[in-house]
C-alpha cells in the first residue's frame, strides 16, 4: 500500500518505525487515539483564555501526535503550546487545528477501514 497519500496528516512509515514496524500495534494505537476529544478540550481552553490549560492540552496532543507521526497536528500544537507559554493569543489557530483534526480523522478511518 502507498502510505504517502496520507501525508501531511500522518506519516504511516515513520509511525510504524517508532514501534519496530509493527503495523498491527500501530493500527491498535490509531483505534485508541482520542484526538477529537483532545482537540475539543484544547479549543475550549483557548476560548476560555486559560493559558495554563492551553499549554497542558497542547503539550499532551503534541506528544501524542509526535509519537503517532501526525505532522500537521504536531506543527500546529507546537505553535499553540509556544504561544500559550508566552501568554500570547492563539485563538487564530483553532480553525486550523480543527480542520487538521478533521483531515486526520478521515485519513485514520481510511487506513483502519482499508
Helix content: over 70%
List the helices and strands in order: HHHHHH
Number of helices: 6
General form:
elongated
Total count of domains: 1
CATH topology (level 3) name: Four Helix Bundle (Hemerythrin (Met), subunit A)
Measured on Cα atoms, how large is the radius of gyration? 14 Å
Distance between the termini: 10 Å
Oligomer: single chain
Low-confidence stretches are none
Largest sheet: none
CATH classification class: Mainly Alpha
Please identify the structural class as seen in this structure.
mainly alpha
CATH architecture tag: Up-down Bundle
Number of strands: 0
Describe the structure concisely.
The chain is an all-alpha fold. It is built from six helices and no strands. The protein has a single domain (3-113), classed as Four Helix Bundle (Hemerythrin (Met), subunit A).
Question: Explain this structure to me?
Answer:
The protein has 114 residues and is mainly alpha-helical. It has a single domain (3-113), classed as Up-down Bundle (Four Helix Bundle (Hemerythrin (Met), subunit A)). It contains six helices and no strands. The radius of gyration is 14 Å and the shape is elongated. The termini are close together. 35% of the residues are buried. The model has no long low-confidence stretch (mean pLDDT 96).
What's the layout of helices and strands?
Blueprint (H helix, E strand, L loop, with lengths): L11 H7 L4 H10 L2 H14 L2 H18 L2 H15 L8 H20 L1
Helix pairs in contact: 3-4, 3-6, 4-5, 5-6
List the keywords.
mainly alpha, elongated, 74% helix, 114 residues, Four Helix Bundle (Hemerythrin (Met), subunit A)
